[in-house]
Structure formats: C-alpha cells, structure tokens
C-alpha cells in the first residue's frame, strides 16, 4: 500500500528522542524523562488518527538500548509491562490496533506473551494502527527476514522485494510516508531501513516530552508541501 497521492500521510513514523536530555536540563532523574515521554506516546497517536493518518509507528526501544544503565533499562521494561497490562484497556476503548515490531521473543519475563496478547486482543480494531517498535533495529529486521526465508527454503530465484517484505516484522503495513525525529538529531539510527526507501524526513528541534498537538499540524503541513516523485520526472 502507498499513500503517494494523498494530502494526508497514511503512515507517520516517529523517533521519540530527547527524553533523557529533557530530564537533565530540568535537573530531574532520567526515569522522569522516560515517564513523561511515555505519557506523551499515549496521547500523540490520537492527534494523528483524528486527522486521517492510518498508521503511527514509534521507535520505543532499539536493539542498542540494552547497553544503557541497568536501572534505566529496567525502568523502561516496567513502563512496557504497564502499557501491556494496564493501559491496553485504554487502547482497546479507543479502538486502536496495536502491533509490536522487533525481536519480541528476546524481551525479559512474560513480556513476549503480553505483546502477543495485546496484538491478539486489538486485531479487529479499526480506529488506527499503533505500531510500537520494541527491541527493534532496521538491520536486525532485515537479517531476521532473511533467516525466515532460509528456514522456509525459499529458492533464491524466487526472492524479490515483495517476497522479502512478506517476512519483515509487519510487512503488511504501508511504508512510512514521513519519518519524524525529535530532539534536533538528524539521523535515522537504524529505524525502518527497508521501509524508509522513499519516506520524507523531518527533524524537530524540541525534545519528545515537549511535543504538542500543534506539532502534528506542522508535520502535516510540511508533508503537504513536499513534492513526492518516487523517482519519476518532476511535474
């Protein structure tokens, strides 16, 4: 699926960056920044869905984030568990479809089972799709797809873009029309390497906890003003 002719992007992907710097600049503990960032993540999808966006993907925890301080990682895992055990009720009431993309089986404790339950219990919802990228890396996703194809004994002559997409974490999703990163950093950090082939990129200087509803309008306006040619001639 593509949304190349639409004025509203079908899929907005967000690299939620800046939680720790937000906290440090306020002389607050790092975990307070993550708590504020998580609270923001709970409300932002609705701002996009109400404007016609169909899919919102968020980069919640990368495969490299395990290298952070143990206390910080443990707190992030507790936030995830809270989302899957308590806040999932709110996602259901809002009719969100919840997807988890990443190496879910490597998550600690009962988190893999909770992720699966969250996906199963919301699969019929149609308000919008919230895709949480968790223990996720763009290279890891491609490697995992190739491994699955090998396990299925796919003939190399049968391999093409559509075939590989089938084995991505959630290959049924349309590619992101625009990828937004907060905090002022201007890089993808391994986010959606396959899917970002023709994505528009937008870098906001504010930290993720400071993201506001007005920023949604800025993103949509910026997207509207971009000319997407997908390799074709300018019209």
Question: Can you put this structure into words, describing what you see?
Answer:
It is a single chain. This protein has 235 residues and is α/β, with parallel strands linked by helices. It has a single domain (11-137, 175-224), classed as Decaprenyl diphosphate synthase-like (Undecaprenyl pyrophosphate synthetase, 3-Layer(aba) Sandwich). It is 40% helix and 15% strand. It contains seven helices and six strands, in the order βααβαβαβααββα. It has helices spanning 19-24, 30-49, 70-93, 111-122, 138-151, 161-166, 213-225, and strands spanning 11-15, 55-62, 96-101, 128-136, 178-181, 200-203. A six-stranded parallel β-sheet has the order 3-4-2-1-5-6, with helices on both faces. Helix 4 links the parallel strand 3 and strand 4. Helix 2 (30-49) runs parallel beside helix 3. The longest helix has 24 residues, at 70-93. The protein is globular, with a radius of gyration of 18 Å.
List keywords for this structure.
235 residues; alpha/beta; Undecaprenyl pyrophosphate synthetase; six-stranded parallel β-sheet; 6 strands; disordered N terminus
């Amino acid at each position: 699926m593509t949304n190349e002719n639409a004025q509203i992007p079908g899929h907005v992907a967000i690299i939620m960056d800046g939680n720790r710097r937000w906290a440090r600049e306020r002389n607050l503990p790092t975990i307070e920044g993550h708590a504020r960032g998580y609270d923001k993540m709970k409300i932002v999808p609705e701002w996009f869905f109400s404007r016609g966006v169909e899919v919102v993907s968020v980069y919640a925890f990368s495969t490299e984030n395990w290298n952070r301080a143990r206390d910080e990682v443990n707190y992030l895992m507790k936030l995830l568990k809270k989302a899957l055990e308590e806040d999932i009720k709110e996602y259901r009431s809002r009719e969100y479809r919840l997807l988890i993309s990443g190496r879910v089986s490597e998550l600690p404790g009962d988190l893999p089972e909770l992720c699966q339950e969250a996906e199963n219990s919301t699969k019929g919802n149609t308000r919008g799709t919230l895709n949480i990228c968790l223990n996720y890396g763009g290279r890891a996703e491609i490697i995992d797809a190739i491994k699955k194809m090998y396990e299925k004994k796919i003939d190399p002559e049968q391999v093409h873009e559509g075939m590989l997409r089938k084995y991505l974490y959630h290959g049924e999703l349309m590619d992101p029309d625009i990828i937004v990163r907060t905090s002022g950093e201007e890089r993808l950090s391994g986010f959606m390497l396959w899917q970002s082939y023709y994505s528009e990129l937008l870098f906001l200087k504010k930290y993720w906890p400071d993201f506001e509803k007005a920023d949604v309008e800025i993103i949509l306006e910026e997207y509207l003003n971009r000319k997407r040619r997908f390799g074709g001639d300018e019209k």
